[in-house]
Write a structure and sequence with these properties.
By secondary structure, the chain is an all-alpha fold. It contains 17 helices and no strands. Helix 2 runs antiparallel to helix 13 and helix 3 runs antiparallel to helix 16. The protein starts with a helix and ends in a 13-residue tail after the last helix.
Amino acid sequence: MTLGWGGIARLCLANAAIGGMAALPVNLFNRLMTVELALPALLPGVLVALHYAVQLSRPVWGHRSDARGGRTPFILGGTLVVGAGLVLTAWGIAFAPSTQVAIAVWIVAYALIGFGIGAAGTSFLALLATAAPDEKKGAAATFAWLMLIAGAIAASVGAGIALKPYSPERLMMVVPIVAAACFVAALIATWGVERRLGAVPAPQEPTLGPALRATWADPAAKAFTGFVFLSILAFYLSELVLEPFAGHIHGLTPDESTKLSGGKDGAALLGMLMAGAFSTFRLGSLRTWAVTGCVVSAVGLMGLGAGAALVPFTVILGLGNGLFVVGAIGSMMRLAAAQEGATGTRMGVFGAAQAVAAGLAGLIATGTLDVARSFMSDGAAYAAVFGLEAVLFLAAALVAVRILHRPCAPLLQPGE
């Protein structure tokens, strides 16, 4: 049994919850550590890398949800763990008696955030891949990522408004409210869904090792894993430097830079909607959107690095990111669901590649920024990071042309 559009839309509220929670570490917390606490940019970069590193456990969560025949406990349990990590991080920023204590708390908190996102995100995508009928998988994946961005926008903009004027006490009030709201959304999204769908197909391989080897033996899965790594490395390279860039170079306050990140996510949302609308009338394939998104993102980054107007080129960057997501994630959903009984494991492998790339991106971006600022102006240092990301996006576009060479069916069929 599969879900209709109403059921798919409700289920995707879980991804909005995950997106809202995941936005705070890379946007708000990164800004507060780098600007308000005047800590090196590399510190939040290392913490975010840690939260991605522990997501190497994604294949474990995916296979366990395959083997145990249920995704919901992993989704809800994961969101609870992420919420605990967010509250701990906020406490370390607001009230830790020393930098050493704060760093110790943040290490534990970011590890919790990574484990929670890995468990919840992998299990959600595996559940969506089996819940959506085959002809709607691409559109369901697109809607899921629209909801992810919508959740990030809501959390970023909502937290930015609630934090004005900023104070440690206000931070400790806002963050638990965001975490609780996200858990409630995940609970509403998943309540009773798996009872309607029936049992999860039994895994072809009952243990993790053989299941991973079977996935890696598939040439299509192996090639796509490589594309995921390169493209996500490009996608996340500016994630930890955009808000500090807005503060250091353009003088934006914390609430203003948080809203700028929300605006970038809003542009990404628009890009996804555009790609989905065009695909409804067969005007573009998944490869088209992956390649176009990479190129448009590179244009936005080059504009930011050149010192052009902040908001327009941030919007261009977000728009390109949205187009890219439609092509890349739509392809990922279809490939993960291609082998019955291994959906969770395949999604975990793709997710692990994504996590490694995203974690490396944070380290590369913040490390490059700190080194560059030691011998050049702040503006030139940020330009170096944005230029590197633009080159990686263009390289990912070339890989997409080669790897995604077969035309894919449109995300939506006319009349659906």
